[in-house]
Task: structure prediction
Amino acid sequence: MEAAWYGCATAPVEHLAGRLAGKLPQMPRPVLTASILRSATIAGACTLLAACASTATPVQSPTPDGPASAAASTTAVDAAAPTGWGPTVGELDEARALVAAWTPAQLAGQVIVGRWYGTDPAEAAGLVEELQLAGVQLAGANIVDESQVRATNEAVTAAFVRTGRDYPPVIGVDQEGGLVSHLAGITTELPAFADAGGAVAASPAGSQAVTAMTTAAALEVRDLGFTWIVAPDADVTVGSADVTIGSRSASQDPQVAAEAVAAAVQGYNDAGVVSTLKHFPGHGSATADSHETLPLIGAGMDELRQRDLVPFEAGIAAGAPAVMVGHLDVTALAPGVPSSMAPQTYQLLRDDLGFEGVTITDSLGMGGVAGVDSPSVAALLAGADLLLRPADTRLAHAEVTAAIESGAVPRARAQEAAARVVAIQRWQQRVAAATPVPDDAADQAAARVQALLAIVP
Result:
């Protein structure tokens, strides 16, 4: 499926925009065209065509009686071809081959981003090594200052290497800007994402300013040892009734939010950091906080498509590597079931929006899923690739391992999830190696924040 859209790669930019417009009718053609042109700096315009996979022409393999040299050439081209979410086809194939021989415990570890309580780097590292976790995410309670953050990330990376894996761990942080800035006081202060939307709405230069700012900010965060930033927020806020997202959203206008999200994804990709669109299928209309309870989203599918899904479609088209699925009761999809544990949510994301990258749950220690038995198993079975910060990491690992061993979670589902995570970490490793962090990363980030704010009315 990953290669199904490569035949689109040679089409003119306007043609690509036209094809994407069929999938993203809410986005104006100029916005799509600009997004395609921006994408050329990372993987070429063809990366924007994951959303049109169902109508694209696949690359044809040589016939069995064709010349051996032609077959070898095609194989090489196919292996180097980019997917719509970062890794090459070859990197994804290598990841699948790697995890095929893993034990259930290894597979379980590779799909969990752990939680630990405290600030001791050794504790985080020990958890990663003991359970062979994909990595950890540092939250506010795990962060003291710059030296402690660096020590934690270095210890986790060293522990990950001791497990025999030759790619980087997932080391994430919520660093959206504004109210959600877990590195406050350590890295450059970023404005709320609403200011990114304000810049986009105010000027044709707004999108470039968003990309420049997110690139610089991501490089500064990467310098601390992080490989993931859990941003940008792709929700469309509905205003005062929205008690959770608010200024974390770029705009109440789906098209403005879409352009800001696409520009931010471009910036993170350029910096070699895995970004994460959130909170699919959209938290901006929720009138309750999923940290505390399971919010009800009563909008019908037409309304979701016209409002909530638009920025996610744009982010995916721009090459987003990961999408976070929220804990929401979306009645149009699976009434009464958290969206993070509803197969219908992942089907919408994969089949309708064409996303082929890593799906990650919102934190599994939140109130929105507090009443679910074995939430890690339920989410993996539904279609999640990464299970974020279970309330009890060791218990979650034991439950997932047992579910794979018993067949309650098919081994093929666990391997699919683990392979995607391995592949995106190999992409991160490759792009980061080619994109050094400048010595003046903090100064550049500060300058680009000011340049963006100068555009905002």
Summary: The CA atoms of residues 282 and 308 lie 5 Å apart.
